[in-house]
Amino acid sequence: MMLKTDRLILRGPKPHDLDAMFAVYSDPLAMRYWSCAPYEDRQQAVDLLDRRMAHWTTSPINFQITIDDRYIGNAGNFRDNEIGFMLHPDYWRQGILTEAMTAIIPYLWRAMGHDHLMADADPNNAASCGLLRKLGFHETHRAKNTFCINGVWSDSVYFALPRPAASR
In degrees, to the nearest 5, what angle opens at C-alpha 84 toward C-alphas 29 and 68? Predict the structure, then answer.
């Protein structure tokens, strides 16, 4: 399974993604609002890539975002009906995640039986919250102290996107 947009190829994970994945997941800026601390050890990226490759064989719903076959991030369904996305900071503010998610969401509606998609973000992450709203997600609720990373608590804002009637 592969999705193509004007600039991107959204595909399954490949072994040669490892170095680029480690570059993203070890970057403190990229990981600022993520649910874990930046990776300190390359083995963490090896383990993540291995899990993604194994999962892709049975459930191709979390895509590697690539330009010229170079991994720059990922987006799609993470678990249950929850979506998420990660992008290397060099590619922020270029509309890449909007482009990727605009292709991925219709695919998820076809591939999955959920009546809605969910997402959560740190309320301080204006870019992610803005993207979710742009994609049609609406805020459902907020929660305090949902993640503790290196002794620092962060909050969450939760979003939902109902399945369009046309895709039922």
Answer: 70
Identity at 13, one-letter amino acid code:
P
DSSP state of 39: P
Q: Would you call 161 exposed, middle or buried from its count of C-beta atoms within 10 A (0-12, 13-18, 19+)?
A: buried
Rounded CA gap, 47 and 54, in Å?
Answer: 11
Only one residue has tokens 């994945």, namely 21
pTM: 0.92
Structure tokens at 42: 């390359």
Token output for 32: 């600022």
Nearest C-alpha neighbor of 31 from the set 88, 110, 109: 88
Contacts of 119 (CB under 8 A, 6+ apart): 82, 83, 84, 132, 137, 158, 159, 160, 161
- Contacts of residue 70, defined as CB under 8 A and 6 or more positions apart, other chains included, come to 20
For residue range 116-133, list pLDDT tens digits in order.
999 999 999 999 999 999
